[in-house]
Amino acid sequence: MPTDIEIASQVPLRPITDIAAKLGLRREHLELHGDHIAKVKLTARELGEPHAKQVLVTAMTPTPLGEGKTTVSIGLSEALNRIGKKSVVTLREPSLGPVFGVKGGAAGGGFSQVLPMTDINLHFTGDIHAVTTAHNLLAALIDNQYSRVTQQCLLPREIVWHRVMDMNDRSLRNIVIGLGKEAGQVRESKFEITASSEVMAILALAYDLDDLKKRLGNIIVAVKPKGEPLHAHDLNAHGAMAILLHNALKPNLVQTIEGNPAFIHAGPFANIAHGTNSIIATDLARRLADIVVTEAGFASDLGGEKFFNLVSRKKGMTPPDAVVIVATIRALKYHGGMARKNLTQADPAAVERGFPNLEKHIGNMRSFGRPVIVALNQFPGDTDEEIAAVRRLCEKSGATAFPIEVWGKGGAGATDLATAVWEAAHGTHGPVKYTYELDDPVPVKIEKVAKTMYGADGVHIPRSVLTKIEERENWGYRGLPICMAKTQSSLSDNPDLKGRPTGFTVEIRDVKVSAGAGFMVVYTSDIMTMPGLPESPASDRMDIRSDGAISGLF
């Protein structure tokens, strides 16, 4: 079986100007990054108003290797184009941490990829580097202004802005800075991964350059001695940060294997951030296409929930018209108690035992009042009996399941799914039913998400965190949506609980106001904002030959 990179290397790439022309984009709307990548200027909004239907792609709780959600999103968009619909897929930019850590590349797979996959998976157009630099500029300005021995110092524990890098490095989770003569205030600090940065969230949620600059200025970097927030605009940092990000704000246009357009822009994680591509990319796609396929990270309890409750409430966005949930036989077996090493063995009984997990995700997305379709991403070894079991169980849960083969067949492997998605997106549905109201108290929002999306009995919020929430609400941030930072490995906040857990309480560890992004982050249990590398990282299998050919980037 050929690898993703071998398949990609055999596909003749088309000039990106030809891909842009499919959307009505002219040369003056583009900033070329070589022959096959372009940034799209925001002036392209002049070509039309947002009108396309939007499809959200989410998933059941994944196995450690993922269930191919990006591959399915690309394949579905290919299939929609095959049945005569003008479709664009919008995706996040891959983080180098997962690329070299567990997952390897994140540009789809097989015959459902976005190209050029090596560039997309590596430095691409430098957007993530720009986010890293802008974030760390603010950190440097904080230390420059408030950590000098000649000035009044902030208490170290009240500085909430740390540094970031786009790599998994557990050794940087807790560090000491300021050592050495005239180095500043010695204090504990840490690094987080760039995908968790509020600057990354701002890049993804900003509507235009003015909005970007305003949001950057609203970032809270510390708490003053009198208990008031210190913002980035108090340091006059937002202008310089916006300069570093003004090119990164423009979405990136690339192509699929079948020569269709794809926007790839911004890269917030879904377990520690809100988990979807930029509003600007989606807004442009909805102006230029008839239907837009947007992936939200991880499962419905993370990226799916946040897309509805958080992202769709922002300027330039509307709730999705239909939802696709990606499921696999192997994930159902995994949640049915089968050992990871045995997932390729046929076992319809394990599939049925694991179905309550998928059933919960179907219920999660149906709770918003939108039609739900299940995309059963097939793998070699899936049996007809197992597939039939999934289809039967999905029908009982109010969702039709479509077996698809987009890895091996591209868009041709999902045309039935595409037809059903098109029809569902154009069906009649009422207003979206949000999980909580924005004016609900923050603890109520947390409890509603935990009970509705996770199936928890309730939440435990320590007194110290409740006091912090009350203080932030008094600052004027009660009306923000919440962004739950939770493990992706379970519906609960315990990664070891598989299937559909019951009888659990979600433990709340901390909260943080991301005032620039416009949400409040709620940290559960021991969620990490700086991932670590596994014992055998994906980088072990990567290499580059003297002729420049790259291997192992899958």
Please tell me about this protein's structure.
- The chain is an alpha/beta fold.
- It is 33% helix and 18% strand.
- The chain has 18 helices and 24 strands.
- Strands 1, 2, 3, 4, 5, 6, 13, 14, 15, 16, 17 and 18 form a twelve-stranded mixed sheet that branches. It has a four-stranded mixed sheet with strand order 19-21-22-20. It has a two-stranded parallel sheet with strand order 7-10.
- It is globular, with a radius of gyration of 23 Å.
- The chain starts with a helix and ends with a strand.
- The mean pLDDT is 94.
Chart the SSEs and their pairings.
Layout: H1 4-9, H2 16-22, E1 30-32, E2 38-40, E3 53-59, H3 69-82, E4 87-91, H4 96-100, E5 108-109, E6 112-115, H5 117-121, H6 127-146, E7 163-165, E8 175-177, E9 187-189, E10 191-193, H7 198-205, H8 209-217, E11 220-223, E12 229-231, H9 238-245, E13 252-256, E14 261-264, H10 279-288, E15 291-295, H11 300-309, E16 322-327, H12 329-335, H13 348-366, E17 372-377, H14 384-396, E18 400-404, H15 406-409, H16 415-425, H17 442-454, E19 458-460, H18 463-477, E20 482-485, E21 505-514, E22 519-524, E23 543-544, E24 550-551
Parallel strand pairs: 3-15, 3-16, 4-14, 4-15, 7-10, 16-17, 17-18, 19-21, 20-22
Antiparallel strand pairs: 1-2, 2-13, 5-6, 6-13, 8-9, 11-12, 13-14, 21-22, 23-24
